[in-house]
Amino acid sequence: MPTETSRDLALLGLLQLVSPALPIGGFAWSQGLESALELGWVTDEASLGDWLEGVLEDGLGHAELPVMSRLMSAWWKGDQQAFEHWDRWLAACRETRELAEEERQMGASLNRLVTSLGLWPESPHLPVGAGYTSAFAALAVIRGIEPRQALLGFAWAWLENQLAVACKAMPLGHTAAQRLIERLRPELIRCVDQALQLEDGQLGPALPGLALASAQHETQYSRLFRS
């Protein structure tokens, strides 16, 4: 049974993993949001909340979150084949070069960081070129983080990053960002609970608008974030 100390260490490990100060470069990407602002699809606090709810429900809730639970299970069991399968499955869902490069580069940065800290075990090992979601899942297991808490932390880090993008790229104040956090916190929980119940055949993102915005971002004349 986990002790109080081990639970505390797991919590602190999760806070470290989702911290904006973690040097993996998440702040550099907007995941299509900067183009959605440029195109006028997102114009204010209300429309930003709608956009984020849609991405959470039809994106993370049917792709990253349920796949992360499978990745964590595979890593815990030492099932390298299953781990690599879900890593490749998620990579195949990245519909633009920008989204694919974000996943690969953040995964490589997290891998380098964990390697420098001496945390990777000899077996199982992280596949070459593993994405950010896979590296996050593996480290969550190593840190003793429960799957549901890991999924909540991953979703929280995504939400904080998207709101940071909005605060930089549109006239959104920090108080408005906090209102959106209050609006979306219950949605994070609902999507995590849903993700843990989905069968394999129910997985797959449905975000044509985000894919179009991300593709448009590659040639956007003026931008703050990477493409």
Automatic annotation (TrEMBL):
The keyword Transmembrane helix does not apply. It is found in: Cytoplasm. Its main location: cytoplasm. Keywords: Chaperone, Cytoplasm, Nickel insertion. InterPro entries: UreF, UreF_sf. It comes from the Bacteria. GO terms for molecular function: nickel cation binding. Gene3D superfamilies: Urease accessory protein UreF. One of its GO terms (cellular component) is cytoplasm. The keyword Cytoplasm applies. UreD, UreF and UreG form a complex that acts as a GTP-hydrolysis-dependent molecular chaperone, activating the urease apoprotein by helping to assemble the nickel containing metallocenter of UreC. The UreE protein probably delivers the nickel. Belongs to the UreF family. PANTHER family: UREASE ACCESSORY PROTEIN F. Required for maturation of urease via the functional incorporation of the urease nickel metallocenter. This is Urease accessory protein UreF.
